Each structure stands twice: as C-alpha cells, then as structure tokens.
Automatic annotation (TrEMBL):
Family statement: Belongs to the enhancer of polycomb family.
Pfam families: EPL1 (PF10513)
Coiled coil found in the keyword field: yes
Coiled-coil ranges (or none): 35-69
Domain Enhancer of polycomb-like N-terminal: 12-162
The protein's name in its UniProt record: Enhancer of polycomb-like protein
Function of the protein: Component of the NuA4 histone acetyltransferase complex which is involved in transcriptional activation of selected genes principally by acetylation of nucleosomal histone H4 and H2A. The NuA4 complex is also involved in DNA repair. Involved in gene silencing by neighboring heterochromatin, blockage of the silencing spreading along the chromosome, and required for cell cycle progression through G2/M.
InterPro entries xref list: Enhancer_polycomb, Enhancer_polycomb-like_N
GO cellular component, one term: nucleus
Keywords: Coiled coil, Nucleus, Transcription, Transcription regulation
Source superkingdom: Eukaryota
Organism for this UniProt entry: Candida boidinii
UniProt-annotated location(s): Nucleus
C-alpha cells in the first residue's frame, strides 16, 4: 500500500513535520523492471537524496551507469563508476609524538558499554554567576574551613537539582513550594543506586577503598578530589542552597542547568523553534 502524500511532490520537503504523511514504498508496489518500458519506470523510483543533490557530478555518473546497465544493450559493457571517498590509507608520521603508550591488541573485540553520563562526572557545570558566588563564598569562610572547589560546588548544586526534579517534578506550577534545605539535605544524603556518583561511594565503602576511581572517571579540573557529600553539606550546603534556590526561583522553578527541549503538543509554535529537539517515529500499518 502506498500512503498518499499531502504535499503531492515527487521529493520530500526539506522541513519534515510530524503532521505530514510520508510516502512509503513496499516491495510489491515497486515497478517491474522486466517490462518493456524499463527506462520510463526507472524514473519513478526515488534516488534517496535531495533534489538539489541529484545534480552532483559523481552521483549523476553512478545513476546513469545504473540506468545504462539495466535498460541498454545487455551485450554492451558498462564502465564501473564509484563516488570518490577520502583516502584513509595514509600513515601519520607524527603519531608516535602524541601516542607514547604501547598498544596491546586484545584477543577479542574492543567493547565499551559505559554511557556518556557514566564517564563525564558531575553533569552540572557552573557558569559565570556561580563563579562569582563561589569566589564570594570562599572569601567569607573562616580560615579554618577549607575553600570550596568548583567540583565540590557542582556536586552540591547537582544534588539539589536531582532531588527537586525527582520529588517535585511540577515545581514550575508553584515555585514558592520548593523544599527547604533541611528536607533536601535528608533526601540527598540517601544513596541513589541509579546515580553513578552514589554508586562509586557505595562500592568504595563496601571494598574499603578511600578513593574509588576507575579508568573511565573524569579527573577534577583543579586536580583535587572532592570531599564526601556529607562533609560538603555540613560545610557549604546551607549557603549554596540559598544561592541555588534564588536562581531556581528566578527561572520560575525550571532547572538552573539548561536541558534539552522536546516537543510539547500543547505548544503551537513548535515548528518555528530552531532549538527544539523532535523525535520522529514512523509507524507502518499493514492492511
């Protein structure tokens, strides 16, 4: 079955809309190339590229060669043509300068199953507003209290974000109802099995390793390992909470750290938003 296209054009438009039906070809609907009008029927099959790209020189040679092979004289020899690709066979002479470790080829394929979130460390990244607050915070701390590093600030702020996103997903309706510091602290100190950071702390405690790190863990930018989360809340938690809460309320309850936007059916201007991430799903229905 061929779905009728609302646009009625031979080629799909550049801008795809979820409200527009797409033409789907099934094997039984393809023209029979063994008929007499092979050349005419070949024109009905889409090339799979944009209309403007069909005029590319090398692609035209490949298309013409394919048409000549199936529609011309069977005894005529057709030249094999290919779309040129960059040469990847050259050797980089300066590779030894930058790669000093000796590579040991494993017996099996190299496998890597860790996700990006598991390897980048804390997802929260402080901005210029946080940097200004952190500098002010460290100046006001007593001499006996160690300075709060950027990595430690990000850990505490990220914990605030995750707790609110989990416990108050609809905080944007009424941001004034945001949890108090004591409530967030009690929840934040409970280990979360789904959080890679809490998983490391749990394994470190079970294995008796004070500094549990793997080869996949990102190193702190300042070179200092952050303190335990409990100590961070005790030293800086209340002051960081006041700063974080102020920023969250300024954003009407939305997360301080930017997040990807997805399609919202209640919004009518989604098609005009260039920053919107839309997931398309194609469903084929059998008759």
């Amino acid at each position: 079955m061929v779905l009728q296209s609302s646009a009625g054009a031979r080629f799909r438009q550049r801008k795809i809309s979820v409200k527009q039906t797409l033409q789907v070809w099934k094997q039984k609907d393809l023209p029979d190339l063994d008929t007499e009008d092979q050349q005419r029927e070949l024109q009905q099959i889409e090339t799979g590229v944009e209309k403007g790209e069909e005029e590319e020189e090398h692609l035209q040679k490949v298309i013409n060669a394919a048409q000549a092979k199936f529609s011309g004289n069977p005894n005529k020899k057709v030249e094999q043509v290919y779309i040129p690709t960059p040469d990847a066979s050259k050797v980089w002479p300066e590779s030894a300068k930058y790669y000093t470790s000796k590579f040991i080829e494993p017996a099996s394929y190299i496998k890597f199953s860790a996700t990006v979130e598991d390897t980048v460390g804390c997802p929260y990244c402080l901005d210029e507003v946080d940097e200004e607050f952190l500098a002010k915070l460290n100046k006001e701390l007593p001499n006996k209290v160690p300075k709060c590093t950027e990595s430690e600030f990000e850990l505490v702020a990220y914990r605030f974000e995750t707790v609110i996103n989990e416990k108050q997903p609809f905080i944007t309706v009424d941001p004034s109802q945001i949890l108090k510091y004591e409530e967030i602290r009690d929840i934040a100190l409970v280990p979360d099995k789904n959080d890679p950071l809490d998983l490391e702390r749990t394994l470190a405690k079970q294995l008796g390793i004070s500094n549990f790190k793997t080869l996949l863990d990102a190193k702190p930018s300042d070179g200092r390992e952050p303190k335990p989360l409990k100590d961070l809340f005790q030293l800086y938690g209340a002051k960081i909470y006041d700063h974080w809460k102020k920023r969250r309320l300024e954003r009407n309850g939305k997360p301080v750290f930017p997040a990807l936007r997805y399609e919202d059916p209640s919004q009518k201007d989604n098609d005009n938003d260039p920053m919107l991430i839309i997931w398309f799903s194609c469903v084929l229905k059998e008759n």
